[in-house]
Amino acid sequence: MKFVFLSFILPSSSFSFQVIPQSSRSFIDMALSSTLERVAPSAGVVPEWEEQQGLSEEQFMQSDVSKPDLSDALLECPLTLWDFENIDLTAARASAQKLPPSCPLEIKATPEDNAMGEDYFIKNKEMIRSKLVENGSVWLRNFSLPKSVSGHRTMTEALNLLPCLDPLHSSGLRKFASERDCLYEEVNKPSLRQHYIGLHSESTTKRTAAYASFVCFKKATEGGGRFLIADGAKILGDMDPELLEKIYKRKVRISVSNLDVPPSTPQILKDGFKSLVTSAVAPKFDMDLEMIYEADGKPGRLMAIEEMESPINRHPVTGQPVWFCNAHNHLRYLRDRRPCGVPEVGMTDVFFGDLGHLSPEECDEIKRVSEKHITAVPMSPGDVLLVDNYRTLHGRDVFEGERYHAVSWFSWEDNEEWRGNELRMREKDGLNGLVNKYMDWLPKDF
Description:
There is one protein chain. Helices cover about 25% and strands about 20% of the residues. The protein is of the alpha+beta class. It has one domain: 4-Layer Sandwich (Double-stranded beta-helix). The strands form 4 sheets. Strands 2, 3, 4, 5, 6, 8, 17 and 19 form an 8-stranded mixed β-sheet that branches. Strands 1, 10, 11, 12 and 15 form a 5-stranded antiparallel β-sheet that branches. It has a 4-stranded antiparallel β-sheet with strand order 7-18-9-16. Helix 3 crosses helix 8. This is TauD/TfdA-like domain-containing protein. Keywords: Oxidoreductase, Signal.
């Protein structure tokens, strides 16, 4: 989930910079966006809840201190593996349509499975790992071992998953639930409980995790909070062929933040400010950002925009072309029409690669095909969703009350070239901590 917060203190400045949202629509539409009816998106598959009992927070947050602290030796998130040239879209759609509708593949624990504890995952490692590649996601349901931080780590180690940093560690909203176990808190913040998180992969143009393990320690106490997943291959196979061809040829760029400079500012000062942001601030986000003035036609607006990327990519292992694009989450047109609890500073949008605008009809088609293939998973304490981050997109519905979900990200454990040998860079931690302190400070429902 991409949120980038750009804020500056310029003590000698005679004018102010205001962080406001960017949109690919007209500014009249932007002004009217607050009056739009917000409707919670639907899902194609909605399984029933099961009332699994969890542990107390004191119990589920316990780490096994007899195991080594992973924090200093963590790998950086690996670089994104791009392979998108010369894809035959007709053949790709036909191939995707033949795939079985099994996202996620459900593996439900029996009492005998739970009695085995760690040994179950050691014994079934190859089966679970192969199903993850074959289906894109595996729902480990009703298991007892992963009900705690220590148990979740034991499970992932039994499956031989190699932890790494979040691709947006330096700028994402997540903070560690347990740093020594490389476990991030998911988006549980009360201030964001009424924000619908659309489908996305945990990726940028620059970095992408190979796999993820999403775990529930405490489901939402007053309802909601289903975890959303969808098969990127199925989305590609079902998307309108004309739009698919258009967006594949033109590619996409994602706007992550905007700064409004007074239009009357002398050009030399505008250029200086752009240079400051480009050289001193943008690199700390570990993203390939370009600062562009007035890309949306608004005088004085400086926009932070990711480099051009393909919305379709071949899966690194299987070669299957998949919808590898975060548009369902980031399109401002869609966010304005569903529950959204993100402050304006965190709003995003999606352009074509030439900075052209997607039409409302094109946005609606992305919404239609994405939500048709969503499975809204009801996760109870101990449930885990293993996700192939190149094939399966994920999100989260709104919720009430309190919840506690967490996630670990993983690199390529058996491919040194893909994995890379870059270890954690501690200088990234400062901005991450600052952003999370800001979000913790916000009232529960701002």
